[in-house]
TrEMBL record:
Keywords on record: Cell membrane, Hydrolase, Membrane, Protease, Quorum sensing, Transmembrane, Transmembrane helix
Single GO BP term: quorum sensing
Database matches in Pfam families: AgrB
Membrane-traversing stretches: 25-47, 92-115, 135-158
InterPro entries membership: AgrB
The protein's name in its UniProt record: Accessory gene regulator B family protein
Alphabetized GO MF terms: peptidase activity
Gene Ontology cellular-component annotations: membrane
């Protein structure tokens, strides 16, 4: 579908548009992001956790930009896992006991200090910025603890675990 749209745009204005491949890639990202946001918000509305779902979406997107992490091989897997995380986190927040949250926060901070950020080879962020990104990510995690935002604590924990998946997948290439 995105390829057809990109080709249509290119045919309308071949001189002032990017290549079909670039537009296809950009359209795929835009449409997948829309699917994740729209579906998660629908679930949030249906299950009476709209505000917490918005928090999960914003927190996950922001924290992922700071830390990197594992990328699935298919956009379907990415969409499904993102929707699952952002839709379930608000509900899990009510079920997780404090001692488990403390453990999750400790693991998150430990991993952030140890291995964050962790970007795949297709991400073009200069290594000179890694320390800044690490410090901002640690500050982000500490703020979620300080504000007692259990939804964000879950999102931070799961996203931090994805750093381990990226490490593991890089070793198997």
């Amino acid at each position: 579908m995105t390829y057809k749209i990109a080709r249509y745009i290119k045919n309308i204005n071949p001189e002032q548009t990017n290549s079909i491949e670039v537009m296809n890639y950009a359209l795929t990202i835009i449409i997948n992001s829309f699917i994740i946001i729209f579906t998660s918000l629908c679930f949030g509305f249906i299950f009476e956790a709209f505000y917490s779902t918005v928090i999960a979406l914003l927190g996950f997107a922001s924290f992922r930009l700071l830390t990197g992490g594992y990328h699935f091989q298919s956009s379907l897997a990415c969409n499904f896992s993102s929707i699952l995380l952002c839709s379930l986190a608000p509900h899990l927040a009510q079920l997780i006991p404090n001692y488990i949250l403390i453990f999750m926060n400790f693991i998150s901070l430990f991993l952030l200090i140890l291995i964050a950020p962790r970007f795949d080879r297709n991400t073009f962020i200069s290594k000179k910025h890694y320390l800044k990104l690490k410090l901002i990510a640690i500050l982000f995690a500490l703020l979620t603890i300080w504000t007692n935002s259990t939804t964000l604590e879950i999102v931070v924990f799961v996203q931090t675990l994805s750093l381990l998946l990226l490490e593991r997948s890089a070793k198997h290439e």
